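Researcher: Before we compare anything, I want clean individual predictions. No alignment, no superposition, just each chain on its own. First chain goes here; please echo the sequence and then give the structure tokens.
Model: Echoing the first chain and its structure:
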Amino acid sequence: MDNLVFKSNDGQPVTNSLLVAEKFEKEHKNVLRDIRNLVAQNCAVRNLFVETTYVSERGCDEPLFVMGRDGFSLLVMGFTGEKALQFKLDFINAFNRMEEMLTAIASNKGRLFDNSARRRYLLATEKRELDARIESDMQRRRAIVRELNQINFEDYQQLGLDLFECNESRIPGLFPNKGKIMKIA
């Protein structure tokens, strides 16, 4: 899910609870709970969220809320922390980009952008998507390194690994000193 915001069937920029959960590193069930709590507190909020379903990885229909800028803003106001702030800014920028694109299309009355402007837009969009993928990949790599740093000697023994002869051919990418004998100090 590289795109934070997408165009709804009626042409409006929207996002959904699954994207919010992923980007804010929250469990989806907790985001659903937060939305339901907002709706329960004030029935006027109900029109900011549209409940629907999606098919999960397990093949089951799961609940999902679709929301526009106002619903998103209301929901994430309660999220805190440094990561939450950065993701709020990312979502706001994504909404702004989508609105700009939809406004440009509407003002051109369906005409395509001229080729150079269209090319610049597509290149900028592709760069943002690649940057997001790179950041996501770096975060996954950092998490793997953190997990590897927590493995102790007993874990290696349980895996049947001999620390004195463990090299890259046994576990690719694990040890930077490829082929060298490992010593325990």
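Researcher: Okay. Second chain, same rules.
Model: Second chain and its structure:
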Amino acid sequence: MPRQAGSCLSSQTLGGMNALITEMIHIRNCKAEDFEGVVALLRQLWPDMPLELDALRRTFDRSLASDRQIYICAVSGQQAVGFGSMTIKSNLWSAGFVGYVDEMVIDGAHRGRGIGTQILDHLVSTARDLGCSRVELDSAFHRKSAHAFYEQRGFQSRAYLYSKPL
């Protein structure tokens, strides 16, 4: 069973000013009604990819019902400002379970406030709680800031990802 999500404060200092914006960010398991907000975030993650909404909806609903798929939303008020998904898979190389982060995206207006760290920490803790020996993910070559983000949090590059459309 995935770990319970929680609430955290997110703060941002405005351009050298002493003004501080503080908002309550709630990290929780996604619900069916989060679909539209998640799609809006995926459009930011994949701006050049046309999204087939019916297929995405079926995948989203199927994943919410799965005990091997974890969907996490970061919400501010009623707005989804972050999303992370992870699949728990059995892996011979690791001789056990591995958590694979499939997607992770933070709304552009909310980046730099620690929300990505909160989502990733939640996914890693969930993987640990479910008996995984490691967490893996992939990141496109051009996402240099994402690579730095993951490396700062203990992830190491150990392989290339190859893909073939079917």
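Researcher: What stands out in the second chain?
Model: Residues 9-20 have pLDDT under 50 and may be disordered. Additionally, The two ends are 33 Å apart (CA to CA).
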